[in-house]
Amino acid sequence: MAAAGSPRVLRLLALHGYRQDESSFRERTGSLRKNLRKRAELVVISAPLSVPEPEEEGRGGGDGQREDPRGWWFSNREKSSFNAMDETASCAGLEESLDAVAKAFSELGPFDGLLGFSQGAAFVAMLCSLKQQGDPRFQFDFAILVAGFKSRASEHVDFYKEPIAVPSLHVFGDTDRVIPRVMSQELAGSFVNPVLLTHSGGHYIPVGSAEKKVYFPFLDSFRKSGDV
User: Fold this and answer.
1) pLDDT above 90 as % of the chain
2) Does the annotation count 118 as an active-site position?
3) Is 75 a catalytic residue?
4) Can you give the residue ranges of every domain in the chain?
5) Residue 175 has pLDDT above 50, yes or no
6) What does CATH list as the number for 10-52+59-220?
């Protein structure tokens, strides 16, 4: 509990990357959670879709081999697989994921913001679009999208029809070989006045001193003093 008059700690719902799960993502965000602990708490959930094994690891395909690989949607309906580069007419699983996040909001919320990584960040952008469209299930103030991208599925085009006015911070690496920075830049272009944070590394969530100089002010702009 925060002391009277001090800004409260924000609550962020965190969505992992493809072929990760709650446990592996908590592991990967250890440094981030430690550095943000006075400002934000991350509540991590697992995606509802189980990724079949074995699956060939490819460019844009996965974010890690784990015991319980999960995903937010499949770009290849027949193979129940996903690749960020896939241009497809029909996907599978998104409705189940929307229901899972809605359940998290209902049972674990409220949440001040969303944080997503890779496929999770792409999904966060869709949730921002739904919030803007007035979907009552998803009530939050801002989003942090790390290594995000726009879905290339034709059935997802409506998510990007209108500029998304939800306040957003977009983080991406210059040498990311899973989700090239141009894809993250394209997603950021779908938002109104996005905050951009680039780093020299690859496909991960950076938590250096340079990044904290962006994370902290962004989060602080949503922290209200006087909450107890």
Assistant:
1) 86
2) yes
3) no
4) 10-52+59-220
5) yes
6) 3.40.50.1820
